[in-house]
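Hello K.,

You asked for the raw outputs rather than the summary table, so here they are, unedited. I folded two proteins back to back in the same session to keep the settings identical. This is the first:
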Amino acid sequence: MSSGGDSPFTLDPESPDWGNEDVMIEFIANSIPDFFFGLFAFVVAVLIVLKWGIKPVVSAIDAREARIASQIEQAEANNRRSAELQAELDRQLAGAEAKIAEMIRRAEAEGNEHKNRIVEAGRAEADRLRVRALRDIDTARHGAVVALREEVAVIATQVAEAVIRRNLDAQLQQELVQTAVTAYEEDVFGVQA
């Protein structure tokens, strides 16, 4: 569609042939085959696109939608499963915490019981040792008293023998007893008067 004057079929409004009916009819008559050819080419192109272009695209889109739907469904299933596992783990953790608390309580009770047994055994041993020491002290005291009585008896016997042998007066008898007691104290206690 050039605007030059060499083509008989110009549709230029400034052209002298613009209002001429014969030129218009001839233009339309020559354009009809081009129109049908273009229409045919368009229809064939549309059919080719529909046959080989749209179907693969649509099937690819459908396959992608199906894959996405499957992935979404799988993700939701995984999410539900994760929530169930989380609930199970929380339940197990709570159970484990309860078991640990019970074990700690039992260990503390056993520790306190063991401590009490040890303290009680220590007290019993201390009481036993105290009773034994008191018994040993009483035995030693009794032995000392018996020994002292025996010594006093020996001294008294010696003094009586001396008094009988000498037939002493009271002053001399007093000195003799004092000498015997002093000798005994030196002998037993190592003390000199």
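The second followed immediately with the same parameters:
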Amino acid sequence: MGPEGYACKDPATVTSDDFVYTGYRFGEVRLCSGGVIPAHSHRTSEVLIVAKGTIIAGFIDTNNTAYYKKLEVSDVMMFPQAMLHFQVNVGKTPALAFVSLNGANPGLQITSSSLFEGNLPGEIAEQISLLSHQEVTRMKKLFGTT
């Protein structure tokens, strides 16, 4: 038992393999000038680190409060688990960022795709999105569905 009350591995038996973990996912985000990663969520939290360019990144909490900020090179932003979040390149040059998600299978659900790209009937999309029939029809056409 360790000093914090947790079971600890005997230091005499520690190997390099004890420091290799596959429970995280890392990714690269490349955005052309004006490029957008639309509102989406994951079942894990996410950390974004800007390597090049200028990005506005943010999330919307369950009280519908938006937290967003213009991020420059070396800025870091964290997105809480399951919160809708987004990124927009607001610079005049391409942007590059790296993300880390704290789970082996973080999933990805893009909000607009979920509503308009799949097999959800237009009538239901209208009811749950509070959009008009014309707006839902336009969005479904944009996403290639009817």
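Residues 108-146 form one domain.

Happy to rerun anything if the numbers look odd on your end.

Regards,
P.
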